[in-house]
Amino acid sequence: MTAPVAPANPGMVTLTIEGRIVVVPPGTNLIEAAKTAGVLIPHYCYHPSLPVAGVCRMCLVEVEKFPKLTPACATSVGEGQVVHVHSDKAREARKGVLEFLLINHPLDCPICDQAGECELQDYTFAEGRKDSRYMEPKRFNPMEDFGGDVLYVPNRCILCTRCVRFMDVMAKDPVLNVSERGDRAYIGKFEGRDLTHAWAGNVVDLCPVGALLSKDFLNRARAWELDRAASVCPSCSQGCNVMLETRDNVVVRIRPRPNAAVNQHFACDVGRMNYRWINRRDRLEYPVARTANALTPASWSEAVQQAAAAIGGATHVTVLASPSLSNETLFLLSRIAVHVGASSVMTMERGDEVPLPGVPDLSLRAERVANHTGAALFGSTESDAPLASLAAGDVLIVADAAASVTTIPDGVRVVVIGTVLHESLLPHVVAALPVCNFAEEDGTFTNLRGRVQRFLQAKAAPAQARPSYRVVGELATALGAGSFPPLAADVFAVMAATFPAFTGMTYRTLGLQGAPLPLLVEASA
Amino acid sequence: MGYPHLSHGRETPVISKYFGDAEARTLAGWQARGGYEVLRQALATDPVDVQNVVKDSGLRGRGGAGFPTGVKWSFMKPDGKTHYLCINADESEPGTFKDREIMRWTPHQLVEGAAVAAHAIYAETAYIYIRGEYTEPIARVREAVREAYAAGILGANAMGSGKRVDVHVHKGAGAYICGEETALMNSLEGRRGNPRIKPPFPAVAGLFAQPTTINNVETVCAAIHVLRNGADWYKSLSSPSNPKSTGTKLFSVCGNVARPGNYEVGMGFSMKEFLWDVCGGPPPGRSFKAIIPGGSSVPILTPEECEGAVMDYEGIQAAGSLLGSGGVICFDDTQDMVRQIARLARFYAHESCAQCTQCREGTAWTTKILERIRDGQGTMKDLDTLLEIADNMTGKTICVLSDSCATPVVSGLKKFRHEFEAKIPKNRSSVMVPSFTTAAA
Q1: Residue B100 lies in a domain
Q2: Of A184, A457, A468, B319, which sits 20 to 30 A from A511 (CA to CA)?
Q3: Same domain as B123, residue B66
Q4: For A437-449, how does the pLDDT look when each residue is reduced to its tens digit (9 = 90+)?
Q5: How far A40 CA lies from chain B's nearest CA (Å)?
Q6: In B308-356, which residue ranges form alpha helices assigned H by DSSP?
Q7: What does each C-alpha distance from B404 to A5, B60, B66, B348 come to in angstroms?
Q8: CB-based contact (8 Å) between A82 and chain B?
Q9: Distance between B208 CA and the closest CA of chain A, angstroms
Q10: DSSP secondary structure code for residue A193 in this structure
Q11: Which residues touch A22 (CB under 8 Å, ≥6 apart)?
């Protein structure tokens, strides 16, 4: 035994990976340590959010003074270690693993949904054999419906067991297992159980190959045809970071985007599936204003002027705003409300809370809206009967609230700022201003823990629809409530200067991972 | 003792002394033969002293790896945690059946050994994991444990020592891999029998994540005799020329041999004398073609290599193989080595736990190629492919099942290449595989 080496950096471990000096906390595994040096150690079964299995043997690396190649996922860093990821020995070992994985893997990439985002494809392309020495018939097992949104194609499975571990450890709903032994093994489903857990869809993302597929996305698009935009899931107040994936301006898939502080690598099935409304075609596409007794298309300035005139002449103004609007838009609405002395109300859709037990504080929240924390910050109060106090002479501003706006008393005039125009409102509307939905504009949401997170534009808006913050900003200016900049980042800056809760925050500091409200950080310190 | 054959004069029966003696099976019979006296003394001795005697004796693990038993025990410190002892009676290595006879004839020897070992590692609980196919041994050991509890030898106040020693018998469900120590623990815990990644080693976090020692049946039985007669006596049983391998070893001899059975000889015994004299050599009119000296996972030896070898850990290693579990498999000149090696490979392909890629895919692929060669459908290129696959399967997986499959292939191809070549149709460079027929088979 050699004497322990004095650490070069106290409290940390210093080692060399591919010739680069790496300093990481003790207990870090070699894959994570290598990432900090920009070195990717190829792997299949390892996943940062799951317990280590060490079974794919793809991440074997050469560590000097170790007798054998060692799995990087299951090896903790050691002071002074010298790790070789791309040595001949390590490359040969990976080539061997790739050959073994491919002997029974169908070469059906052209019809496989995973193609283009498949780790088996990528690593084979990078360092696999160019031919196959396997002459025997390939193993065959039929496709199986795993329930929920998941389809299992066993022929493509490399038995990394990520899905099994996710259901066991994260969902704590052990539905999956490894059945049989040897090369007969496959992922099995316990008798009578299905992947119906609200978070089960994650196994599709976790699968490094095309063995677990989303039925919803099945044969919908090739991975390389998709455009991706960093976003935040609007389906509940958890604020899971997601990627909106579009093809030809149509959102076709929502997948989680890693954020250790919010959702790790996961998103629930409700969030994943709730994207069709983003693509709806029956949108309000151009401004309309009331002339004489009819609603007719109007220019933006006419419509805004008409809305402002109505609001200015109202006995009382009520703002009914969706708590799924961005902070920026809600802030500007609050400027209008303060200026005209309006009351701000909101309604909230609720459902069952479904946690993912393996991750602390990660849940499909009961409040199925994206930004009720923000809405409350800007003075909106929740109400079961938001329109009860409306009386003739009042103006109601409906800001993208799907709201069950059923009975509006006669004599109440309505200004709509929204993506759609509800038929029930038509007799009351004085002006309707078409806005983008969250996938068509930039903005931020504040989640239920007070974390402010940015979302980016993923698709183009229909026809003349404009970003909501811009439309509300123009209306506020027309009402004399001040002048506001036309870009989301600048509106955010004005907001941060106005509301102490956001002090010091900018789009730059938020980045794509978000940050908790400064006041909350202070309070918890 | 060469059970079922008569003992040979050159044997040194210590563990196998009472094989064939039905009386030794009962508690009364075992006690009449001096049984449980070692346990009584051990329970009154500090575990460290027990460890030291075994350390001094040079006793090494008899399950295959040959790790010094006393050293293994000394990893277990009185740290206030619950310790466990596992007795590996899975004996799944093809060609090995020594533990079976120990359990059939002297179940109390195992129970006593388990109790002593449990005490030596500060454990109160020992699990004896017996493979499911061993119906008679399971019944015998269960009966012995029942008798021992009834007599107060086991339980809360073992032999009046005030110490608790519990022994549980667990029946395996019949998987080769459950003889691997960490897979055995998983199996005991009720999980799928998959080997675990080390570290953590069992001495740190083993069964139920507690410090655990796992010993072979023969090892703990040998430990009783070490403690009864002393370390020097034990060392005197083996050849003085090699102090690294001490005491006696049970060898299970099977295959094409005149007197198959279990034989106990001192370490360092001449292999030539063992095979041709003690075991009676090949069947009449035949000659040996190949010998696997330590269970199916070790390299195959030719009779010539065996002639000069001595039977201990280092001696067999010097001859190019391993002592392993002591399962000696003999092949005579009528055997087809390609068929035999293909059969071994098929066994490993069937038993792979399917965790590691190399093992899951490699064992099955190796089998398919070997069986194709066996059936006259091989090519010369297949032989190189086999060796390259074997190289990719060696030293890269969690446990050594993958290596075990590669070993007979590599040594077989090295030593019996002519038999492989003889099965390959001349000048054939590629082959049309009858895929539809083999797929259905």
Answers
A1: yes
A2: A468
A3: yes
A4: 999 999 999 999 9
A5: 20
A6: 313-318, 337-351
A7: 37, 21, 16, 8
A8: no
A9: 17
A10: -
A11: A14, A15, A16, A33, A34, A36, A37, A77
CATH, residue B159 = 3.40.50.11540
State the fold for domain A288-524.
Answer: Rossmann fold (3.40.50)
Tokens of A248: 């030809």
> Which of chain B's residues have a Cβ under 8 Å away from the Cβ of A52?
197
The reply to whether residue A183 touches residue B439, judged by beta carbons under 8 angstroms, is: no
Read off the pLDDT band of A524 (50, 70, 90). Answer: low
Residue B190 sits in the same domain as residue B65: yes
Which amino acid is located at A513 in the chain? Answer: Q
pLDDT tens-digit profile of A339-385? 999 999 999 999 999 999 999 999 999 999 999 999 999 999 998 88
Domain of residue B359, CATH code = 1.20.1440.230
Instruction: List, in order, residues 6 or more apart from B154 with CB less than 8 Å away.
Output: B111, B115, B145, B148, B165, B166, B167
Q: The domain A13-96 is classified under which CATH number: 2.40.50.140, 3.10.20.740, 3.40.190.10, 3.90.226.10?
A: 3.10.20.740
Token pair belonging to B82: 């619950």
In this structure, CATH architecture of domain A137-279: 2-Layer Sandwich (3.30)
Please indicate if any CB of chain A lies within 8 Å of the CB of B209: no
- Could you say which of B364, B436, B439 has the minimum Cβ distance to residue A183? B364
Rounded to the nearest angstrom, the minimum Cα separation between A20 and chain B is 25
User: How many residues are there in chain B?
Assistant: 441
> B247 is in which domain, residue-wise?
242-332
Q: How many distinct structural domains can be found in chain B?
A: 3
Rounded Cα distance between A303 and A298, Å, is 6
| Nearest C-alpha neighbor of A44 from the set A15, A73, A65 | A73
Cβ contact, residue pair B361, A100, below 8 Å:
yes
B217 and B249 co-located in one domain: no
What CATH number is attached to the domain comprising B280? Answer: 3.10.20.600
